[in-house]
Design goal:
The complex is a heterodimer of chains A (283) and B (364).
Chain A: H1 8-41, H2 45-50, H3 63-70, H4 74-105, H5 111-121, H6 126-139, H7 146-154, H8 157-169, H9 172-180, H10 185-193, H11 198-214, H12 217-222, H13 231-237, H14 248-282
Helix pairs in contact in A: 1-14, 3-14, 4-7, 4-8, 4-11, 4-13, 5-8, 9-10, 11-14
Chain B: E1 5-14, E2 17-27, E3 32-36, H1 43-51, E4 58-63, E5 66-67, E6 78-81, H2 93-102, H3 108-122, H4 137-149, E7 155-159, H5 167-184, E8 187-192, H6 195-201, E9 204-209, E10 212-217, H7 219-224, H8 229-234, E11 241-244, E12 247-251, E13 254-259, E14 262-266, E15 276-281, E16 286-289, E17 296-305, E18 309-316, E19 321-327, E20 337-342, E21 348-351, E22 356-357
Parallel strand pairs in B: 3-8, 3-9, 6-7, 7-8
Antiparallel strand pairs in B: 1-2, 1-4, 4-5, 9-10, 11-15, 12-13, 13-14, 15-21, 16-20, 17-18, 17-20, 18-19, 21-22
The chains are: A mainly alpha (283), B alpha+beta (364).
The structure holds adenosine-5'-diphosphate and magnesium ion.
Chain lengths: 283, 364
Amino acid sequence: MSDVSPSPALRRGLGDHIILAAVLVLSVAMVAPVLWVIGLSLKDNAELMANPNSVFHPPYIIDNYIAIIGTSAVFRWIVNSLIVSVGLTFGTLVLASLAGYGFARLEFPGRQVLFVIVLFGLAVPEQAVLVARHQIFSILQFHNTYQGIILPGLSNAFGVFLMTQYFRAIPKELDEAALLDNASRFKIFWKVLLPLTLPAQATLGIFTFLGSWNDYFWPLISATRKEMYTLTVGMASVQSNFAQSEGVGFLMAQAVFAGLPIFIVYLFFQKYIVTAVSGAAVR
Amino acid sequence: MTAEIDIRNVSKRFGSLTVLEDLSLKIPAHEFVVFLGPSGCGKSTLLRMIAGLESIDIGEIFINGEPIGHLPPGQRGVAMVFQSYALYPHMTVRQNMAFGLQNISVSSKVIAERVANAARMLEIGHLLDRKPGQLSGGQRQRVAIGRAVVKEPNAFLFDEPLSNLDAALRARTRVELAQLHQRLKSTMIFVTHDQMEAMTLADRIVVMNNKKIEQIGSPMDIYDRPATRFVAGFVGTPQMNFLNVTALATEPSGVRVECGALAVVAPFDAAAVGRATMLGIRAESVSVVRDGEGDIGATIDVLERLGDRSLVHARLADGQSVVANEAGQTRLKVGERIGLRFAGDKAHLFDADGVAFHVREAVS
Ligand SMILES: Nc1ncnc2c1ncn2[C@@H]1O[C@H](COP(=O)(O)OP(=O)(O)O)[C@@H](O)[C@H]1O
Ligand SMILES: [Mg+2]
């Protein structure tokens, strides 16, 4: 009734406006560089050299993209990246689910110790094991093979941890009800529990795929033959000018090109990615 | 077929904690048995041992004469309804009910028939294509029962299936469960800590406490002739009155029991003399009379008006408290002096170990 203090509805309206403004500013901050990159990718390299500001006006050309597609190996690299990313994602989901089920549901001696060892894996950076891994893979002749690129990523401590927690959160009474329903252990895993972990599978799958697609470090080391490059490594290999003072347009076209598959994945899995990321933030 | 369940000398421990000790119990076919006891007394554990969800440490359980200790849960011919219902969240109601039958390769025609029948009986036909998340608590409960019914088990095991329902729904479901039992005639074992549920549902009640069975009997048996002080106190609302016995003597007309200034004479079992330490009597066997009349005088502490009757909480001169029952809506007032009359032949005596002595059955 008072006309001094604003009503809750009005205050909420004001809060909404502030949030909206913040979202707008942040969105512009996020989108501007992307647009800039796309703009640069559509410019002639020489023109950009002469005047970096030429990005703001035509002519816009697609020569840089034609040059990329003209690189004979580029489709091979895309296929390599797809094989590696899909293989790694699939393998990670299978292994992490089985391990998670095991840690959450099976009684076996040493379970706790083993789980702690897995958790320690979270704290070991890739760089620390690089040399040893390189040696081992040399002996096994895994370099320049798909398994050479995929295998290291399969030991995903975070994935095992995530799935273990997820399986643990499922009430044991569901297993028991299924036992009374004459389901075998595998059937309980496959038909009752696994479907309930779908949100976690989506989270883990998406993060694994994105991480694998964008990975540069290990493929660069393991894949030394051009036809085994992944897209990221391949793209980097055709940059003749490492100071990146020239050919900025071409460079940016590469960035856009490499990001396209991710963009497509995002379009398809938008819903899951949003929940995956926000879920990760809440927990 | 329906199951006769024979539990012989069963013990169970979890680590160093003994939950059940040398427990034996025979449940005839078709019977509706209720395991009643305070929470933590091992009711669920015993039920889960019958179901096969807990191992049997010592002893054996027989169903229709066959030992079942070595059989996996699915092969014991029992179905269980969990307190949390444990419906599969990602399956529709129909799939929930069909799952157990599919696993034993029942033909899809038979499955469809049984699901339809059970759905009709439980009035959940319109819910078959919904998932558990889209159901109310009461509906989930029905689905959980339906999932058990379609298996046509020899025995149903219910673990506190009504405790998540509100009071009105609980009362209704109780009646429906009784009807279900009438209809299916299967053996049913029902676990609860709620004596009201036990009294209304059971053919026989098994009262459990502290690792063992206190008493097995019909609801009226348990109510009228509790075997131990625990049973006497656990069953019945309000709780039975307990008074300390100060003197016991045999008289021509029976046993004279004195509790301070109160004296009750009734044909108690003569074995009680010299042993009983406690007198127990239900509120309905204590009536309020005018001050100066009855067996002893008292002062009213609290009045509970329940509509059809009133509970009178009275205090004796020596400080002991007694609850009496008055039919209808009382005109008594708190603080008023009254007399209490004890129906001695409805009283019970208990010795120091809690073992009960009753009045001798009337011989006519
Ligand atoms: N899996 C278990 N491990 C250890 N202790 C248990 C387990 N299950 C039950 N208990 C213990 O056994 C006792 C009886 O439990 P329960 O049978 O569930 O009691 P009730 O159903 O009568 O409430 C309790 O003290 C409980 O803590
Ligand atoms: Mg219980």
